């Protein structure tokens, strides 16, 4: 039977209703519905990727850098559209200071790599018994100046490049950050959608939490809801009871009981862009101590936002919430009970990317930068509370992609 899909993802056409009724219940439950789906903004265009390449080329020309090497990963997708996993076989783009990019990939992978290549490029291939580094060196022949490498490039790649090409190899972190740290309107639209989907999925899961459920049970609810809305579930971390005092969890099995603290930290991916939201609630009647800590964390988020001013170093946002927490008797510094991790992190195509809201990052806030705001509090042996929302810095101040939690009684 032929089935067609409408723009919002529900079965359409004369045979759609019959086809839907004939499906197993488990398959119907996993399908997106008109109420689930959230209209998708447009993916990143070729013109935007070309503008990114032009920007980084201009920076290289100013700094006397010959080229930027970007191997498989989010930055390769950012500049070229190529979506490819890392392995011992190198797939990389060489972006020269002038001219179109050169993409180097194994011969037998070229058709697959070409499927997502979104910009004009010179595709050069190597066979299994050849050196990809010699191919890269040949692509750079006649160019003067050092070669910058994207900051996550593996050591054997930089060593091979230096050995084969005899180039001076320098860090390309500043070049890449100057492009990726500032999000365009198209990027912001994708991030807003990802965050909206995640918060919606968490709300749906919250309504289904029952006594006796495990962390995995609740995480599965979030993942299924995320997929129904058309996004890729990236993670659904759920921490229960005493395990909520460990920011990234514990191996000890936990189940929902009366008075359980339920901490949900979840994210999804929409057209390569990520979300990261945390919410904490209590199953049943909260204690006075749970309410007090929850309210303190919510005020901590306000301290982070209150310190967010254009030109202020991002370290100041972390410092602001720590001063507040210390005045409330938590800490000091990173000690427990208190806030043992940074107040937030940059986010975009990677769930964690620069700049970071921590004391040793002096990057000044600029319009278009995106972050999480997550100043949790953790009490070993008892519980932890984390609230997290992603936001963008604008000309007029910080703007959250999603509504903040209002109270422990309306925590999601």
Top keywords for this entry?
412 residues; alpha+beta; Creatine Amidinohydrolase, Chain A, domain 1; Creatine Amidinohydrolase; 3 domains; 4-stranded antiparallel sheet; elongated
Report on this model:
This protein is of the alpha+beta class. It has helices at 16-22, 25-30, 46-63, 74-80, 110-114, 132-139, 155-165, 173-180, 185-206, 215-228, 288-307, 315-327, and strands at residues 4-5, 11-12, 67-71, 92-96, 102-106, 122-126, 147-149, 169-171, 232-240, 260-270, 273-274, 277-283, 344-346, 353-357, 370-373, 377-379, 383-385, 389-394, 397-400. Helices cover 34% and strands 21% of the residues. A six-stranded mixed beta sheet has the order 6-5-4-3-7-8, with helices on both faces. Strands 9, 10, 11 and 12 form a four-stranded antiparallel beta sheet that branches. A three-stranded antiparallel beta sheet has the order 15-18-19.
Write the layout of secondary structure elements.
Blueprint: E1 4-5, E2 11-12, H1 16-22, H2 25-30, H3 46-63, E3 67-71, H4 74-80, E4 92-96, E5 102-106, H5 110-114, E6 122-126, H6 132-139, E7 147-149, H7 155-165, E8 169-171, H8 173-180, H9 185-206, H10 215-228, E9 232-240, E10 260-270, E11 273-274, E12 277-283, H11 288-307, H12 315-327, E13 344-346, E14 353-357, E15 370-373, E16 377-379, E17 383-385, E18 389-394, E19 397-400
Parallel strand pairs: 3-7, 5-6, 7-8
Antiparallel strand pairs: 1-2, 3-4, 4-5, 9-10, 10-11, 10-12, 13-14, 15-18, 16-17, 18-19
Helix pairs in contact: 3-8, 6-7, 9-10, 11-12
